[in-house]
UniProtKB/TrEMBL annotation:
It is found in: Cytoplasm. Belongs to the methyltransferase superfamily. RsmI family. Its EC number is 2.1.1.198. It catalyses: cytidine(1402) in 16S rRNA + S-adenosyl-L-methionine = 2'-O-methylcytidine(1402) in 16S rRNA + S-adenosyl-L-homocysteine + H(+). The keyword Cytoplasm applies. GO terms for molecular function: rRNA (cytosine-2'-O-)-methyltransferase activity. PROSITE patterns: RSMI. InterPro entries: 4pyrrol_Mease, 4pyrrol_Methylase_sf, 4pyrrole_Mease_sub1, 4pyrrole_Mease_sub2, rRNA_ssu_MeTfrase_I, SAM_MeTrfase_RsmI_CS. PANTHER family: RIBOSOMAL RNA SMALL SUBUNIT METHYLTRANSFERASE I. The keyword Nucleus does not apply. This is Ribosomal RNA small subunit methyltransferase I.
Amino acid sequence: MISKLYIVATPIGNLGDVTLRAIETLKNVDLILCEDTRQTKKLLDKYGIKKELLSYHSHSKLSKVEKIFELLEEGKDLALVSDAGTPGISDPGTVLVSKVISRVSLDVKVIPIPGPTALIAALSASGLPTHEFTYLGFLPHKKGREKIFKEITSAKRTIVFYESPHRILKTLESLQKFVPDKKVCLARELTKIYEEFKTGTAAELLEYLKQNPEKQRGEFVVIVA
């Protein structure tokens, strides 16, 4: 029997962004793998889905992966979700998918259920060039960080990456140093109540956030033209 592992994209903020196919899939699988069971339960409760949950995240032990293998070997159909967005995009889900595909003993079909992802949502409304872009995920906290900003200096394509509220000011300071003339777009709190897009030079955006400390909250997508 071929079992199925569905890679299900879930909303990045607004729970209304879930697709009909995602809802149907989550209702029909035998079990849902998720980063934080409490976070996933909010989505399931909204759509009246009652399903067994199993946590799987970046700190999961090898025994958890073996448990997932056992379920698939039993012919169970599983859904993999992250806390928000598409599993595998800057997300530990990519490791699991790789392990499942490379497991010779498993007869599993991996099926993507596409939907929300913050980087595409941000690009679509940024007004910056999108015909070619490079996605960097989350930048390293320390080692290699300055090297990346130097690479952005000579980039011929639009650059996209994620940043936390704790490092957004330092990131803008680095962009001001290395690419002072390039246009930058900050996409903050996408699909949520305080969603905001702000475009300008790094210096202009840095000044804006310093004058409006409340705007430093939330998760950021940073786009450099």
